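Customer ticket, subject: "Can you confirm the structure for Protein arginine methyltransferase NDUFAF7?"

Message body: Hello, I'm evaluating your service for our small team and ran a test protein. I'd like someone to confirm that this is what the system normally returns, since I don't have a reference to compare against.
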Amino acid sequence: MAPLPACRALLASALGPAGRLRLPPPAAAARPSSGPGGQPEAEGRSQATAMLRHLLLKLRATGPVTVAEYMREALTNPGQGYYTRRGGIGESGDFITSPEISQVFGELIGIWYVSEWIATGKPEAFQLVELGPGRGTLTDDILRVFSQLASLLSKCDVSIHLVEVSPKLSEIQAQMLTGGKVQSNPEDKSAYMKGISKTGIPIFWYRDIQDVPPGYSFYLAHEFFDALPIHKFQRTEKGWREVLVDIDPEVPDQLRFVLSPSSTPATQNFIQPEETREHVEVCPEAGVIIQRLACRIEKDGGAALVADYGHDGTKTDTFRGFRNHKLHDVLRAPGTADLTADVDFSYLRKMTQGRTATLGPIKQQEFLKNMGIDLRLQVLLQNSPDTATREQLLHSYDMLMNPKRMGDRFNFFALLPHHRLVHPDKKHKPESKSPLPPVAGFDELVLK
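Agent reply: Thanks for trying us out. I re-ran your input and got the following:
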């Protein structure tokens, strides 16, 4: 499907003949998808990390913990958590994301938001709210698009709001987006830091989405939901049992998975009666956040775009770890590796509780093609100064679009107000309204 005419026009005016060109390192690799069980073989004996010592003390005192509690400790513990201490994104880290692979990814996301802003009548102000913004690369690329479309956005009050729990990553984001010109914000208890982007747009940092002010907002969650803590459940002859993390009695400084001896509160609350799978992962925190987004969009307008590894309620065991761009045993050396699980988009859709319409999930390959990535690639290739640059552009394109790499593993999912897709009085006066502009990037233009 060719990009929508409005999207094509935005593409031409926002990106110009070439623009700034950022190339990924040649060896950059995306996170591999999970195999059966999502686990590689353990690499030797478990390292006695500070986080492991902390967990061993906790387990000896309280007994086994849920996988969700284990993930929460390993990733966001204030002293030794992976994200609070490291946050290894990029070539020198533990995994690489689409914005790090190619600037075109972020440029097309920026065009998606401008397209939606136009389709909803060009409101006089909007907030771009990114959840878990990584190094700030995606926001930086989006801001460049906004700058290129400055004449179009000249009468719109645009602001950026970043929800980030990692002090380390917020420093990196501030450096990239403002050149480090930020200040702590003690007089405003909601935003802990604020600054001005290099293009003059105000930026605010928050620790929780509830701290972001209300108002017409576009939300962005790229590789955010996959890092939220999950509960794991296994069907047994005695009914559903929760998977827990405990000390291995045969190797006292190592961890192992065990099943709960009886039903847990999470088992009773999160397993649906109609569930047919033998193994299920549920992320209640994702459900809470998607509900908050749906409530905000229903009340204030806007849209949310979620891009992540995921499935539509079909997969089972996807919990896995990454370290140095390779699969890593999730129970080994906690706090030193990224932990992730595929997003269940059917669960997100259910948790909107009908407050918003949803589109997708659709494959990244399809979304980016609909957004005009092929046109953008041709322009960049025509303006590339040398063969090496052209080869890198083609390599980046293949990383994003190849079904065996990120093209099919990654999905896009959107939340939109109901009236964005269906006129409120369409049933009664089908001829009374002009056709609604389609949603860029999505083939699927029906309510789910």
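A couple of notes from the result: The radius of gyration is 22 Å. Residues 86-230+283-420 form a domain with the Rossmann fold fold (CATH 3.40.50.12710). Feel free to reply with more questions.
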